[in-house]
Design brief:
By secondary structure, this protein is of the alpha/beta class. It contains 10 helices and 5 strands, in the order βααββαβαβαααααα.
């Protein structure tokens, strides 16, 4: 079994906004303000269109054989094209099942646009059955296939009115949820130079996603109680061995 759960964190694409709105000479902060204000006027929300997001962190968990890992792609100084390429390279190497929370509605479309921008190649991800017949009936792009499971979408029965936040569902299930950080704070943290904190936050988000997925697999009958507890124990032991502050905080908020 190869399985990735993944999550991205983004900030406004200031370079694009400056060109689109002809804002040469304005600071990054003023460009971002102009972008969100224009969006608010047009759509009644200041959440930017997906093609106007720039990815600053991608975190993944990787479950394979008897091992479990969690990390953020690249280094703190890696540029966007590198971390996006690393994401799709992982898919090319392992052909994993993908697990996300709102990945179909946010993370993957943003990854598509940024890969397009940077000339990232991702043929395995875009396989639809022409080169591998197995992908005709189970690929990463089709909403009702299982090679990518968007937990938010699936658990809502594919109904917008049924959607819930990852934080709410994680807390409902006894998992840590968000620990003092949220996506709304990423832009301010990025401007302060806090990319390390953003990556840490992204890792805890992807851990919540993985734990919810394990409970989902139990509900589906793909794990029994013993297997579920063994998966939980593997996550706990992995985080304990890593001994990093944000992961220790996550463990402390996840009572046995």
């Amino acid at each position: 079994m190869h399985c990735f759960s993944f999550d991205i964190e983004t900030v406004p694409d200031i370079e694009f906004g400056r060109r689109l709105l002809d804002l040469d000479g304005l600071s990054d902060e003023d460009v971002a303000t102009a972008m969100t204000f224009k969006r608010l006027q047009a759509a009644g929300t200041d959440f930017l269109p997906l093609h106007q997001h720039r990815i600053v962190a991608i975190s993944v968990t990787f479950r394979t054989a008897d091992s479990f890992r969690v990390w953020s792609l690249g280094d703190e100084d890696s540029d966007e094209s590198e971390i996006v390429q690393r994401f799709f390279d992982g898919i090319a190497r392992y052909t994993p099942d993908l697990v996300s929370w709102n990945g179909g509605g946010f993370d993957l479309p943003v990854l598509h646009y940024r890969a397009l921008k940077h000339g990232v190649k991702a043929p395995r991800y875009w396989e639809m059955g022409d080169g591998d017949r197995d992908f005709k009936w189970n690929n990463y792009l089709s909403r009702f296939h299982w090679r990518h499971i968007d937990l938010m979408d699936v658990l809502a029965g594919f109904q917008p009115r049924g959607r819930a936040s990852l934080d709410d569902i994680a807390v409902m299930l006894g998992f840590p949820g968000k620990l003092g950080m949220s996506g709304a704070k990423v832009w301010d943290k990025f401007r302060e130079g806090g990319i390390g904190e953003i990556r840490d936050y992204c890792e805890t988000d992807v851990l919540n996603t993985w734990l919810v997925y394990l409970r989902f697999e139990f509900m589906r009958g793909n794990l029994d109680e013993k297997e579920l507890q063994r998966e939980y124990a593997l996550v706990r032991s992995t985080l304990t061995k890593m001994d990093q502050q944000h992961l220790n905080e996550f463990l402390a908020a996840w009572p046995e």
